[in-house]
Amino acid sequence: xxxxxxxxxxxxxEAYPQRENLFKNLATNQNPRALFISCSDSRxxxxxxxxxxxxxLFVIRNAGNIVPSYGPEPGGVTASVEYxxxxxxxxxxxxxxxxxxxxxxxxxxxxxxGHMPAVEHWLRYADSARLVNEAREHANEQERIASMVRExxxxxxxxxxxxxxxxxxxxxxxxxxxxxVFDIESGTIEAYDGASMKFVQLAxxxxxxxxxxxxxxxx
Length: 219
Known about the structure:
The chain has 219 residues and is an alpha/beta fold. The chain is 43% helix and 16% strand. Strand 5 and strand 6 (198-201) form a beta hairpin. Pfam families: Pro_CA.
């Protein structure tokens, strides 16, 4: 805790003065361009990975970068998605998984989570990804886990489109969806290409979006 407090004091003394005008402008207003949904893993820092300043990202973090399908009992993730899309008018939503994800590893390797019932219940929102992943052949456990991470990103892209605010924004062509997987060791990102239904290197394909394949047709 001492290091955390010392970090704040350093921020107050060094970082804040450099951005004083920014924070003054943000004191009563925010206008983020994107909603970034990532894992709570301590190794993933959305603002660092994307090099964004305060006020530029609206961030949701949870175990497994999960977005529950819309239901009659909305939780914190649902409320945050709705606020970002309906109130803040974000133009892009990024769902970002990552390598060596503990949540996806537990699912892919069938680890018993009975001693963590809340975690076990939460990860049921990745069941569709688990079923798809289990139906495929994998050369080894490492590949099985990596595949689970990707399938989960695809599953959560589908889940988020059950949210009314997202469905409306997509139908009015004012929202883009992105599915990313961040590799911790190399610092690279793979992006889900909705047109080809494959993950590609974001650095080589910066305009990649997930929307074409994940699109839900109008009734």
